[in-house]
Amino acid sequence: MILSDRDIKKYLKEGKIKIIPEPNFEEQLGPCSLDLHLGNVFKSFKPTQYPYLDLKTKKSFEEVMDETTIEDNAPFILQPKGFVIAVTKEEIILPDYIMARLDGRSSLGRLGLVVHSTAARFDPGWKGKAVMELGNLGIMPIILYAGMRICAITFETLTSPAEIPYLKQKDHKYAGQNNSTASKLNEEPR
User: Fold this and answer.
1) This prediction's pTM
2) Nearest 10 degrees: CA dihedral of 29, 35, 37, 43?
3) What's the rounded Cα separation, in Å, for the pair 156 and 3?
4) What DSSP designation does 185 have?
5) What is the spatial distance between Cα 14 and Cα 111, in angstroms, rounded to a whole number?
């Protein structure tokens, strides 16, 4: 069951869900979602001697990415066909009986901005900032600003608590992330 605005406020007040920093409900709360803000750290692929990304490589994908940090309210220009990994300002902490989904904002989607390519689900027991895969599908550059509302998160209750929540999984590669984190696909067993 998806939580309503009323339930989101209640779960946050009771500490069942934690959002740090505490949200401003007047600005961020929708009927069944909570807007999150764009953080200050971006990662993009840099020119490299490799002509492709090899998914079986043991090399860290961090090695082929540059990190850019900007000040609050500073601009970041996402070029047409551009792709960056970005992070929200907010940290999200979920109990073992609630999962969350991240969605782009419609107003940004209408400009050609894709907020997440595939990673929209946050498993029960998640703790960390949301990392987004931002893409510009349009033909014009889009100027994004650190601190702007970039996405919305919805919360769903499970029919029962997860037997093995995210933080207790052996392969929880992205737990506790606080910055834009490159793919860790190369760490998975083959």
Assistant:
1) 0.84
2) 170
3) 6
4) G
5) 37
Q: Residue 99: pLDDT above 80?
A: yes
Catalytic residue (choose from 133, 156, 187, 188) = 133
Q: How far apart are CA 25 and CA 42, in angstroms?
A: 26
**Residue 27 appears among annotated catalytic residues:** no
Which among 158, 102, 153 has a CA at the least distance from the CA of 125? Answer: 158
Quote the DSSP letter at residue 167: G
DSSP structural state of residue 49: S
Tally helices (H) and strands (E) across the chain: 3, 11
Element (H, E) at 28: helix 25-28
pLDDT one-digit tens code per residue, 18-68: 999 999 999 999 999 999 999 999 999 887 767 777 777 777 777 778 899
Query: Is-contact 154 127, C-beta < 8 A?
Result: no
Interatomic CA distance for residues 47 and 63, integer angstroms:
11
All structural domains of the chain? 5-47+63-161 (2.70.40.10)
* 172 half-sphere exposure, CB direction, 13 A CA radius: 17
Q: Return the half-sphere exposure (C-beta side, CA atoms, 13 A cut-off) of residue 115.
A: 26
